[in-house]
């Protein structure tokens, strides 16, 4: 089997140990005589597995008891609609949003279908290469919630502090940086994340929601978009994405074995610092993001001569460095270095970049 390092933004690399365990359990899950893919989500075995996954992520993230954890479908894009549908009501039909990149832009466009959206921070004039300074954004005390995207996967900008929204619930799309470091869950009303970057395979969506925000949806909100539906049914109102849920559980156990989120934060910060240093020390490569707000997870960069983009990508692939092409809206390159990307993979990329510069600079 060809050995590669996969720098895809998502679906993304999974821990090798998780892939190995899933392979071993593919046909016969722990003596059940069947694969998890074939197992009823109502069976005692699957329910026990699901409960263990929830217990593990609660432990990893130190999730308080007055928060529910939901394992849903539909991706983060479905949550762009679910959040306003659940939090808007007859007296509060407006929300504040940060516009800091492509994904927050999509969240805003969807939320506008359901109520009044006030953009309280907009970095589009800076081409989404920076973020508002901590404490500089004023939110409305009458807002139903404040929404932001802590890490913009495409632009490679990341909040390294949590916005203070006072008594207004803070909602975060953490699809691309969840589980990358410890956070204080109690500072949020809702956290949601597509699984395909730091949690597991595509098809699963994690939602963490505070109890007092459940049960506020209007009667005409579809059952599948109503958080109360899924809380009452234990995330099993309909058939859940069982195999993705199982893999996520393996990832949670792997994270605990690595030393938990404090240890992952150390590794992730070290990986990002090494890659940014290699870019900054070169006149051949460039990262456009203001250093204070650079992402630990997604590192976009360009070559001074963009005619070399195609040779760079081909030769990188020849060296086992895959999926480095930047998003079509940005161009250049992008290295996504999520939890499962080992430091050896980042070092291999740095060494290739140095050699490519030496031979093409």
Set down the secondary structure blueprint:
Elements: E1 5-6, H1 16-24, H2 44-61, E2 67-72, H3 75-87, E3 94-99, H4 102-111, E4 116-122, E5 146-148, E6 151-152, E7 157-158, E8 170-173, E9 190-194, E10 205-210, H5 227-232, H6 242-258, H7 260-280, E11 285-286, E12 298-303, H8 309-318, E13 321-322, E14 333-336, H9 343-360
Parallel strand pairs: 1-13, 3-4, 3-5, 5-8, 8-9
Antiparallel strand pairs: 2-10, 6-7, 9-10, 11-12, 12-14
Question: How would you characterize the overall build of this protein?
Answer:
- It is a single chain.
- By secondary structure, the chain is an alpha/beta fold.
- It has 2 domains: 17-257, Aspartate Aminotransferase, domain 2 (3-Layer(aba) Sandwich), CATH 3.40.640.10; 260-360, Alpha-Beta Complex (Aspartate Aminotransferase, domain 1), CATH 3.90.1150.10.
- The chain is 34% helix and 16% strand.
- The chain has 9 helices and 14 strands.
- The chain has helices at 16-24, 44-61, 75-87, 102-111, 227-232, 242-258, 260-280, 309-318, 343-360, and strands at 5-6, 67-72, 94-99, 116-122, 146-148, 151-152, 157-158, 170-173, 190-194, 205-210, 285-286, 298-303, 321-322, 333-336.
- A 7-stranded mixed beta sheet has the order 2-10-9-8-5-3-4, with helices on one face. Strands 11-12-14 form a 3-stranded antiparallel beta sheet, covered by helices on one side. Strands 1-13 form a two-stranded parallel ribbon.
- Strand 3 (94-99), helix 4 and strand 4 (116-122) form a beta-alpha-beta unit.
- The model has no long low-confidence stretch (mean pLDDT 97).
């Amino acid at each position: 089997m060809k050995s590669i390092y996969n720098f895809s933004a998502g679906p993304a690399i999974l821990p090798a140990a998780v892939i190995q365990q899933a392979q071993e359990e593919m046909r016969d899950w722990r003596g059940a005589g069947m694969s998890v893919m074939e197992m009823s989500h109502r069976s005692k075995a699957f329910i026990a597995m699901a409960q263990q996954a929830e217990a593990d992520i609660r432990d990893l993230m130190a999730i308080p008891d007055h928060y529910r954890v939901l394992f849903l479908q539909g991706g983060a894009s479905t949550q762009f609609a679910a959040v306003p549908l659940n939090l808007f009501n007859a007296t509060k039909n407006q929300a504040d949003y940060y516009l800091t990149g492509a994904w927050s832009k999509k969240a805003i466009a969807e939320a506008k279908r359901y109520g009044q959206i006030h953009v309280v921070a907009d970095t589009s004039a800076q081409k989404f290469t920076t973020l508002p300074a901590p404490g500089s954004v004023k939110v409305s005390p009458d807002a139903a919630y404040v929404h932001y995207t802590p890490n913009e996967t495409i632009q490679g900008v990341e909040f390294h502090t949590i916005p203070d929204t006072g008594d207004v619930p803070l909602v975060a799309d953490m699809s691309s940086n969840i589980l990358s470091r410890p956070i204080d869950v109690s500072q949020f009303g809702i956290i949601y994340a597509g699984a395909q970057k730091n949690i597991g395979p595509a098809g699963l969506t994690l939602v963490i929601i505070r109890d007092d925000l459940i049960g506020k949806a209007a009667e005409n909100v579809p059952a599948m978009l109503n958080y109360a539906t899924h809380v009452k049914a234990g995330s099993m109102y309909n058939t859940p994405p069982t195999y993705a849920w199982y893999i996520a559980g393996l990832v949670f156990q792997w994270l605990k074995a690595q030393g938990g989120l404090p240890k992952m934060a150390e590794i992730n910060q070290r990986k990002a610092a090494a890659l940014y240093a290699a870019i900054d020390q070169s006149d051949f490569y460039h990262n456009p993001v203001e250093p204070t707000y650079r992402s630990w997870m997604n590192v976009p960069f360009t070559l001074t001569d963009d005619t070399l983009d195609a040779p760079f990508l081909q030769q990188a692939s020849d060296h086992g460095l895959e999926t480095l092409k930047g998003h079509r809206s940005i161009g250049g390159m992008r290295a996504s270095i999520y939890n499962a990307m080992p430091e050896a993979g980042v070092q291999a990329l740095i060494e290739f970049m140095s050699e490519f510069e030496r031979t093409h600079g």
